[in-house]
């Protein structure tokens, strides 16, 4: 996956998290069963999360994974 795509995915996750009042990276990490630094690295485009972890993040963000990916895809075009 390209750096641009990873950054776009991270931005989509960060944007969605920001839409949920009071949801910090630590809170998202807890909801998704991940470590806060891992979530931080995903949001900054430094990690390429597995498909399983993307599902966990989408569920924690209360958004269909397809919508999350579509938001990231629009940022790449």
Condensed summary:
This protein is mainly α and 77 residues long. It is 71% helix and 0% strand.
Q: Rg to the nearest angstrom? A: 11 Å
- Topology order in helix (H) and strand (E) letters: HHHHH
Helix content: over 70%
- DSSP, total strands: 0
Would you mind describing this structure in some detail?
The protein is mainly α and 77 residues long. It has helices at 3-19, 25-32, 36-43, 51-60, 65-76. The longest helix has 17 residues, at 3-19. The radius of gyration is 11 Å and the shape is globular. The model has no long low-confidence stretch (mean pLDDT 95).
SSE order and pairing:
Layout: H1 3-19, H2 25-32, H3 36-43, H4 51-60, H5 65-76
Helix pairs in contact: 1-5, 2-3, 2-4
Task: List key phrases describing it.
77 residues; mainly alpha; 71% helix
């Amino acid at each position: 996956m390209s750096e641009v795509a990873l950054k776009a995915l991270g931005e989509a996750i960060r944007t969605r998290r920001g839409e949920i009042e009071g949801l910090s990276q630590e809170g998202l990490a807890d909801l998704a069963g991940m470590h806060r630094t891992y979530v931080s690295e995903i949001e900054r485009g430094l990690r390429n999360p597995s498909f399983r972890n993307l599902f966990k993040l989408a569920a924690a963000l209360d958004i269909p994974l397809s919508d999350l990916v579509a938001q990231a895809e629009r940022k790449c075009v």
